[in-house]
Amino acid sequence: MTSRKPFVGGNWKMNLHGAEAQNLATQLTESLPTTDKVDIAIFPAFGYLAQVGKIIEGSSIKLGAQDFYHQPNGAFTGEVSLSMLTDLGVSVVLIGHSERRHVIGETDSLVNDKVLAALEANMQVILCVGETLEQREAGKTDAINMGQTLLGLAGVKAEQMAQVTLAYEPVWAIGTGKTATPADAQSAHLHIRQALAQSLFNQKIADAVRIQYGGSMKPGNASELCGEPDIDGGLIGGAALQAADFAAICETAASQ
Ligand code: PGA
Predict the structure, then answer these.
(1) Which CATH code fits 7-255?
(2) What is the pLDDT of residue 1?
(3) Pocket test for ligand 1, best of 8, 11, 221, 226 (most atoms within 8 A of CB)
(4) Cβ atoms within 10 Å of 48's Cβ, excluding its own
(5) Which of 6, 128, 157, 254 could crosslink 37 through cysteines, CB 3.0-4.6 Å?
């Protein structure tokens, strides 16, 4: 089995105003594990990227952005480009988060445009996939994850896959307090890895790709989830807003 370093992301979503964001970032620099056994990134709201970036500068925490637009510049009112994010010290981007797909209406084709542009810009990419409750109940979990993975990664070169992490986030588990059982999550992760091996790249690349779990991961369930062989850390929403909870999850992931 390939040993993959776990990767934990803290997605702050549209939460925390200036002073709150700065406080949390300061607390994280003091409480996050300093081990190199886990990679850690935080994703503050756009408006506070610069402030948070200054606070975590020099630490091992990476600065991430929750979204961007794939065009380099021009008449795209309200959007932010990858080079603007690079200017701010951002090195990781989330793409295709379920809230962007299901609330904002992003399509697989837009998700793919963003993946290709971000890789070209040398960003680390976290591509999120996951089924809705309706799709799960209709037995379509693996088909949906495979479709979103294949369409999202269309045109990505094998050598670019070192920059890519996937996040399996069942939509019905995000922010709901409902978590996929470790066995269900493991099964979904394994199918995603098989899709990477059989339909896109090869087993070696599939074995090296990290797949995070996201959806109500908390200190109390992180150990069980991260203990599964194909779960390589987590993408955390609610529990990322409390320094102690996020630090505990990072510790757990590092110790698996
Ligand atoms: P949650 O969010 O941990 O609050 O469920 C996860 C995510 O949206 O990435």
Answers:
(1) 3.20.20.70
(2) 47
(3) 11
(4) 20
(5) 254
Residue 111 has pLDDT above 90, yes or no: yes
Q: How many helices (H) and strands (E) does the chain have?
A: 11, 8
pLDDT given at position 2: 56
Q: Determine whether 137 is an active site residue.
A: no
Query: Best mutation site among 12, 95, 216 for ligand 1, i.e. most ligand atoms within 8 A of its Cβ?
Result: 216
Percent of the chain at pLDDT > 70 equals 99
Domain ranges (residues) in the chain: 7-255
Question: Which helix (H) or strand (E) is 86 found in, with range?
Answer: helix 82-87
What does the block give as tokens for 218? 């908390």
CA distance 130 to 43: 20
Secondary structure element (H or E) that encloses residue 113, with its range: helix 108-120
